[in-house]
Specification:
seven-stranded mixed β-sheet; 12 helices; 12 strands; single chain
């Protein structure tokens, strides 16, 4: 059976070029970059050129890049690191209700330690209103954390505008760019961000590695204490092969980005248009204009998303219902409920995220199977009466 992978927001395969770049650092170039002899220094040099590549890609200085284990760690670092370092200045954080759990959970954790958190609502397309951000700022606000691209519905937030407001008011601004980094152009000056989270496995790099951009001069508490690596901000022996893989993934992204944006936007819109025209009672979630090029998120009335996911899996198609991180939970997606989708409809959601290798033929095959599966499930559904 032909396998069709349409869940690139959950993770991506390691690109062959990335694998090839990493291999020497798993085999002969295994030195610890903190070691002073040649083998260590060879690894250190590789890390520093990787740092220069990723820094340059977002318009940062190399010393503003800290390597760590991925998006979850970067988000935790941003929230807790800023909160603890600035608590004499203030105790208030602003974020939004549609953030990834990697932001929401540290926010809840900080609330339990007497920090105050404002969770801004979003509109029906998932947008945070920059004016509401401005209104929420008090003289106790130390951090604003709003994601760049939503992992479920693909909505792109007006980050540049929110960042400008944050800067004018002297508040640190963090954005979780896990879903957009490597897929869209990103510049820290244009976005006005102070801290930015990245995960390698979303852009054809390996799992368990990522980075955080921290603007020079930002007051932040180190996330891990230990051997003093990463300018004392994140101790632990560096994941050399992973970091080399991340930098290679960035180089590939630079080469492929323009073509990929055009290709994926075309396939995405084809998929959306066909779903809407071939299936009754479908809602498209998220903004159609300000959207990740690869994201399709729809709700089918009278369908259980999980049943849909399993039925499609049986036919070799990998998709997600809600988000992969919360698949298996019976709660409807917090993102869909936040944009006003009623819980019974939200249960019927399907997220399809296209990738570098996705072809029009794959999308067409998936479409036929989705159309058929919706018909089959609805035929068995007690709540579908047509
Ligand atoms: N933030 C967003 C928006 C994500 O989509 C994800 C992963 O799905 C994460 C953070 C967590 O990243 P990681 O898997 O690298 O911990």
């Amino acid at each position: 059976m032909e396998k069709i992978y349409l869940d690139h927001a959950a993770t991506t395969p390691v690109a062959p070029e990335v694998f090839e770049a990493m291999t020497p650092y798993l085999e002969e170039k295994y030195g610890n970059p903190s070691s002073l002899y040649q083998k260590g220094q060879e690894a250190k040099r590789a890390i520093e050129s990787a740092r220069a590549v990723v820094a340059d890609f977002i318009g940062a200085a190399p010393e503003e890049i800290i390597f760590l284990s991925g998006g979850t760690e970067a988000d935790n670092f941003a929230l807790k690191g800023i909160a603890y370092a600035n608590k004499e200045r203030g105790d208030h954080i602003i974020t939004s209700v549609t953030e990834h759990h990697a932001v929401l959970e540290p926010a809840h954790f900080l609330e339990a330690q007497d920090f105050k958190v404002t969770y801004l609502p979003v509109d029906s397309q998932g947008f945070v209103d920059p004016e509401q951000v401005a209104e929420a700022i008090t003289d106790r606000t130390i951090l604003i954390s709003i994601m760049h691209a939503n992992n479920e519905i693909g909505t792109l937030q007006p980050i540049g505008e929110i960042g400008r407001i944050a800067r004018e008011r002297g508040v640190y601004f963090h954005t979780d760019a896990v879903q957009s980094f490597g897929h869209l152009p990103l510049n820290i000056e244009e976005l006005n961000v102070d801290i930015l989270s990245v995960s390698a496995h979303k852009l054809y790099g390996p799992k368990g590695v990522g980075m955080i951009f921290i603007r020079k001069g930002t007051r932040i508490v180190p996330f891990m204490q230990g051997g003093g690596q990463e300018r004392n901000l994140r101790a632990s022996t560096l994941n050399v092969p992973g970091i080399i893989g991340l930098a290679k993934a960035v180089e590939l992204a630079i080469d492929e980005m323009d073509g990929e944006i055009t290709k994926l936007t075309g396939l995405r819109d084809y998929l959306i248009d066909e779903l809407v025209s071939r299936i009754e009672q479908v809602t498209v979630n998220g903004s159609l204009e300000q959207r990740l090029p690869n994201n399709v998120n729809v709700c089918f009335d009278a369908i259980e998303g999980e049943s849909m996911l399993m039925a499609l899996d049986g036919q070799g198609i990998s998709v997600s219902s809600g988000s992969a991180c919360t698949s298996g939970s019976v709660e409807p997606s917090h993102v869909l409920t936040a944009i006003g989708v009623p819980p019974d409809i939200a249960h019927g959601s399907l997220r399809m995220t296209l990738g570098r290798s996705t072809t029009k033929e794959e999308v067409a095959t998936a479409l036929d199977m989705i159309v058929q599966t919706v018909a089959n499930l609805r035929a068995m559904s007690p709540v579908w009466n047509r």
